Amino acid sequence: MTDVHIDYDAKVQQALRQVVRNVLLETEKDGLKGDHHFYIAFKSQAPGVELPAHLLSRFPEEMTIVIQHKFWGLKIHEDRFEIGLSFNQKPEHLVIPFDSVVGFVDPSVQFALQFHDDEGEEPITEMMEANVDFADSGTVQFEDDDDMDDMNDDTDPDDSGDKGDTNNVVTLDAFRKK
User: Which segments show compositional bias classed as Acidic residues (predicted)?
Assistant: First the structure.
C-alpha cells in the first residue's frame, strides 16, 4: 500500500482562487456592483507578476491594491488578471497571476480570503494584519493612516462625505489559519 495522500489543502486553495477569478470576471463584465470593492494582496516577486520598477522597489515582497473607483482595463485570463491603476496620480499597468494572490478582501460584505504560498508558508499579508473597520458605509478604515499610503490612489476625488461610525473594528488576524 502506498503512502500517497490527496492534498485537500491545495485543492481548497485553488478553488478559493477560482472564487476570486469569478468575482473579477463579473467585475470585468458588469463593473463593480453596489458598494463592493476589493483589496487584493499579492507577492510582488512571484513568477508572472508584472509591475513597474518603481513599484517593485517600493514593494519588494508583497503589495496590496485597491479596486474601487479608479481602475481601467481589467482583463481576466485563465491564470492571471491585468488592471490599470493610478499610483501618485500616475497611471500604471499591472499583471497579477492568481497564484501570486495571498489575500482578497471585500469589506462591503465583510468577506476575506487568505492564501498560503506553494511552500505552505503563511503569507506576509500586511493587509491581513491591519486592524480594519468594516464601516456601515462599506469602506475600509485603517487604524493607521500610513497603512493606506502603501496602496494605490483609489479614492474618489468627489467623495468628502462622512465615512460612518468607526467603532466596529475587526482584526483580520481572526481569518488566519492557526
Answer: 142-159
Whole-angstrom distance, CA of residue 74 vs CA of residue 99? 17
* Cα–Cα dist 23/91, whole Å: 23
Domain boundaries, the chain: 8-175
User: What CATH number has the domain spanning 8-175?
Assistant: 2.30.30.220
Predicted structure pTM score: 0.69
Residue partners of 95: CB distance under 8 A and separation at least 6: 48, 49, 50, 80, 81, 82
What is residue 141's predicted lDDT score, i.e. its pLDDT? 41
- Location of C-alpha cell 463593473: 31
Strands (E), 18-166: 38-43, 62-67, 71-76, 80-87, 90-97, 101-106, 111-114, 131-134, 140-142
Sheet hosting strand 169-171, strand order edge to edge: 140-142, 131-134, 169-171
Contact assessment for residue 4 and residue 81, using Cβ atoms and an 8 Å cutoff: no
- Taking the C-alpha atoms of residue 40 and residue 20, their distance in angstroms, rounded to an integer, is 9
Which pLDDT value is given to residue 4? 87
